[in-house]
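Lecture 7, part 2: worked example. A protein chain together with phosphoric acid mono(formamide)ester.
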Amino acid sequence: MRHLLSPLDLSVEELDTLLDLASDIEQHPDKYRHACDGKKLATLFYEPSTRTRLSFEAAMLNLGGNVLGFSSADSSSAAKGESVSDTIRIVSCYADICAMRHPKEGAPLVAASKSGIPVINAGDGGHQHPTQTLTDLMTIRSLKGRLNNLVIGICGDLKFGRTVHSLINALVRYTGIKFVLISPNELRIPSYIRQDVLEKKHVEYQEVERLEDVIGGLDLLYMTRVQKERFFNEEEYIRLKDSYILNAAKMALAGKDMLVMHPLPRVNEISVEVDDDERAVYFKQVQYGVYVRMALILTLLNINIPDA
Ligand code: CP
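Predicted complex, written out as structure tokens:
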């Protein structure tokens, strides 16, 4: 039995196979309509979500399976003090696979150690968000045609943004990747990512504060929200929340092929006037999220479709 707790749980070869499967699902959805008949996905969300929970549910429904679960800790027995370890033992009796989001880093890992079913980390605190990374990789591969030889700007809250940590972990395994890390000093990338991932893998990167200075040299700009829910000090959040606002004037400084991605939800960091720019692909990115989650469910449940 396999879990997905980090993007590194999949080798580069397995990742390529999964993305190929996701592309086949995109092109031939009818082939997969009954792939999960009789199977159940549990969504255990201890933290708010729109995309991740609903795309997992849409993915399982598209595969012919069913879904059950809860969308907040308050509506589960966690509110009465039940542990994650006990909850997963219970859910293993009801479902075939589960996706868990939790505010505490490592909670899905604890669940996996007690689980009778595959556990997918759907975001744990400020740590990792591997299925967002699968979504991001499919978006980049589909729209740029490659996952190597890219200059990737990542802008915003690099300290608490778990999508950023997972994406960097996944992309350092490809060749010719250069990161431009754009953040206020207070929200710089954590030192464990800088030292244990970027420097250890000898990946080229630079850290800057001004988006305008670097936007012209990027193949891809990955914008992120300042993660209000991870701040201990509200005044600090208010001071930093509008550090970056991508607008038409800044887009005018970017190359004609630079893609703008965002894991969403956005708050103010991308002006709505950018939405109609054809380089803005954050809503397309959401659709890719359904295909990769379908492919992931099939992979973890070991379901093979003939001629897939
Ligand atoms: N991208 C993402 O994780 O969105 P949700 O928080 O809405 O699931």
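The chain has two domains: 7-128+287-300, 130-285. The first helix runs from residue 12 to 27. Keep this in mind for problem set question 3.
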